[in-house]
Write a structure and sequence with these properties.
about 130 residues, mainly alpha, 4 helices, about 75% helix, about 0% strand, elongated
Length: about 130
């Protein structure tokens, strides 16, 4: 059982890390960039989590349209929820917490993708490739 929990925790943390990379990219691209601690010397939960919580508290002050503010705030909140559920799952082993973490990431990632797409092409002028 512990091996399954450890494996699932590792898989969830890998996905959370990928999500975190997208958050870092999006926040750096905002009109008022928000830098987050990231890299091997920083822990995803110990260092990155408090910075994401802070970014969440100020994201609605960005000079961007309301829709993109909502996407930013919601994507950040889903990341926070996922991180907290992963930690709770690692401690308790309660499957509903792992499921909640996965659901939060699945819900937040498309919002983050939409925000990044808007940040890359705010006027919607870029034509699809292909």
């Amino acid at each position: 059982m512990s091996d399954d929990k450890d494996r699932q925790t590792e898989q969830l943390m890998d996905r959370l890390k990928t999500y975190a990379e997208g958050i870092g990219l999006a926040l750096r691209a905002l009109p008022i960039p928000i830098a987050l601690p990231y890299g091997e010397e920083h822990g995803l939960i110990a260092d990155f989590m408090p910075a994401v919580v802070r970014a969440y508290s100020i994201a609605d002050e960005q000079p961007i349209p309301e829709q993109q503010q909502a996407e930013a705030c919601t994507a950040l909140l889903y990341w926070i929820m996922a991180a907290e559920m992963i930690v709770a799952y690692a401690v308790s082993g309660s499957q509903h917490r792992a499921d909640a973490a996965l659901l939060a990431m699945m819900s937040g990632e498309p919002l983050l993708a939409d925000l990044i797409e808007w940040l890359v092409d705010p006027e919607g002028d870029e034509r699809p490739q292909g």
